[in-house]
Design a protein that fits this description.
Layout: E1 2-5, E2 8-10, E3 15-20, E4 36-42, H1 50-58, E5 69-74, H2 80-98, H3 112-131
Antiparallel strand pairs: 1-2, 3-4, 4-5
């Protein structure tokens, strides 16, 4: 069971785990122990509220397939249990990141005073550069 937010919970039935051999260096157990975890989470078939489903399906992330399945591969740790916890934590972070509603930006114009300051600064800079030029006698 994974708690996403207050009252929003994902059950173990919604998440599918498969265990594979991790890539990279691993010592003696690298070819024997399947410590990496593949987490699969079907957004459409999950028990998430509709708001979360819509936001996740519209969210652009490489871990979300066209069919609406989140695939997370966790192989950071040496043990299966830690990789499983890591995958669940990353799933939670992904869901929370997708459901953040950003404030709408309002277009604004620069004030008259800021326009004047900008022009004055440009004039001062131009004057400095002209004084660097050659002097005619």
């Amino acid at each position: 069971m994974l708690e996403i937010a207050d009252g929003i919970i994902i059950t173990e039935d919604d998440i599918e785990f498969s265990y594979i051999r991790a890539q990279g260096a691993g010592g003696q157990n690298v070819n024997k122990v399947s410590s990496a975890v593949h987490l699969r989470f079907d957004i459409r078939a999950s028990s998430l509220p509709e708001f979360y489903k819509e936001r996740l399906l519209a969210f652009r992330d490489a871990r979300i397939t066209r069919e609406g399945i989140i695939i997370i591969k966790a192989q950071r740790f040496r043990t299966q249990e830690k990789n499983r916890e890591d995958a669940l934590l990353r799933l939670k972070e992904l869901i929370n990141k997708a459901t953040v509603v950003h404030k709408q930006r309002k277009a604004s114009r620069p004030t008259l005073a800021s326009k004047k300051r900008r022009v004055e600064q440009k004039k001062r800079r131009a004057q400095t550069k002209t004084l660097r030029g050659r002097i005619d006698h």
